[in-house]
Amino acid sequence: MHRGTAALRFAAVTALVAAAPAHAIIASVDSFLILKNNTVLFLDEFSNGTTPGQESGYAVLGNVPTGPEANSLLALNSANGSATRDALGRERQAVVVTRTTPNGAAGLTDADNINITGIFGLTTPTGPLFNAYGVRAAESGVPATPRVAQLHVEFNPVTAAPSIRFVLQDFPGGTITLLGAAALAPTAGADRIQLSLTRTVGDDNFYGSFAYGMNGSFGPAMRFATGGALFVNSDFVRGQMISVSAVPETGTLLMMGLGLAGIAALRRRQAKAA
Fold it and tell me: Where along the chain do its domains lie?
C-alpha cells in the first residue's frame, strides 16, 4: 500500500470516528408524580412551557434546552446528556432529571410510603446499542449515587428486542441486579406507558410496575414480584426521570471505519480492472 493511500485511509477513519452520530433516544414525558403517604408531594404535567432546567426544585444532569416542552410533553433527548457510567462502569450518555426533595422530614424518608410515577409517550427504543427511558428512586447522600432502583423501557442488545426492565444499581458494590423483565407488548391503540416505583413503610424494598394507556385511561398494572432495597446508605431518596444511551466504543467505530475504507479500496480496484 502506498503511504499516501494509507494516510488517506487513516484520515478517513479518524474523520468517521469524530463525526460519528450520537446514539440517542428521545423520551416524551407526559407527567411526573411523587406521592408521599398517599398525598401528592409533587406533580409536573409539563404544561407551563418551562423546562426542568429553568425551574427551581429540579437538578439536571445533562441538558434540557429551552423549547422541548410543548403540547404538555417534555422531551428528554439522551443526545443532550452528560457522560456518565452505570454501576458496572459502562459508559453512558444520560439526561437525569431529579426532583430535589430535601434530606429531611419534608422529603422522602424511610418513614414514608412512597410512589414515584412517570407517564411517557410509548416510544419503542431501537438499537443496535442500549437505549432506555424511565424512572428511578435514588438514595440521596454520600456517595453521591449510592443505590438506585430503576424501571425503564429499553432496547436490549443481547436479545435485540425492546423490553421493560426493573433493576437495582449498586454503585458502591459495582453490581446491577435484574429484579424483573417483560417484553414490550403494548395493547392495541396504546400511546402511553405508566412506570411506577412504590414502597410501603416497614419494607425498604421498592417495587416496579407498569401499565399501557390510551386517551388518558390505563389498563391493569403489572407489578414485578421482586423488590430492590434502598435506604441502605441513606435515610432519604429522590425521584428521577431518565433518558440514557450506551456510548459506542472507539474500537467499534475504528473497525467500522476500517471496514468502510477497505470496501472503498476494493471498489476502486474493481473499477480499474473493468
Answer: 27-247
